[in-house]
Amino acid sequence: xxxxxxxxxxxxxxxxxxxxxxxxxxxxxxxxxxxxxxxxxxxxxxxxxxxxxxxxxxxxxxxxxxxxxxxxxxxxxxxxxxxxxxxxxxxxxxxxxxxxxxxxxxxxxxxxxxxxxxxxxxxxxxxxxxxxxxxxxxxxxxxxxxxxxxxxxxxxxxxxxxxxxxxxxxxxxxxxxxxxxxxxxxxxxxxxxxxxxxxxxxxxxxxxxxxxxxxxxxxxxxxxxxxxxxxxxxxxxxxxxxxxxxxxxxxxxxxxxxxxx
Length: 261
Prior knowledge:
15% strand, globular, SDR, SDR_fam, 3-oxoacyl-[acyl-carrier-protein] reductase (NADPH) activity, EC 1.1.1.100, NAD(P)-bd_dom_sf
């Protein structure tokens, strides 16, 4: 299938590793010109070199979602390095694990800014360009925790849940303009983040990492962890031309793990 995005310009947030990097690679493989951002210049430069060596087009900008100037930095980078935008992939790092009772005002405020406020304000800042050209794809990476809350991830369940209402509202407003907005929900996709969370759960439960991992896999009908490439393929399709009639929805990539309909 031709995704129809060759030559399209894509910004992918938090793409120094993991899911963000996976989506950037997938978009570049489809011919999109990709701009990635993250906090570590060395990783970003290496990622761009890898994408370029594979025949893609990629550039990067060092930026931190936690910084007050993040949105203005990204808007300027899009103008200078891409000359405009067709595809926006909103991806953020996950917050610290913990229970609902462990959420205090400082944590809520800090992660709300980086995981919700920056996503919404950057999207609003880039939308006029998509409206003017009559084409746009907005893909926001959230978590399967928004449909089935995940234990010991109270902050993530809470803050990513806010993006559900925002995405649905936005999608209805921009659908007549040729712009789609969807959420992509990862389940147990094998990344460094999953290793970190499993390690934290192992410590909390007094078990080994292997025990925690095995118990987790038993809850997944597919019987294994997902790969970044599988997740990224779904993301690239939602950003494609053929996906023009898919908007305002949440797509789970979880091996069937979520028990909700």
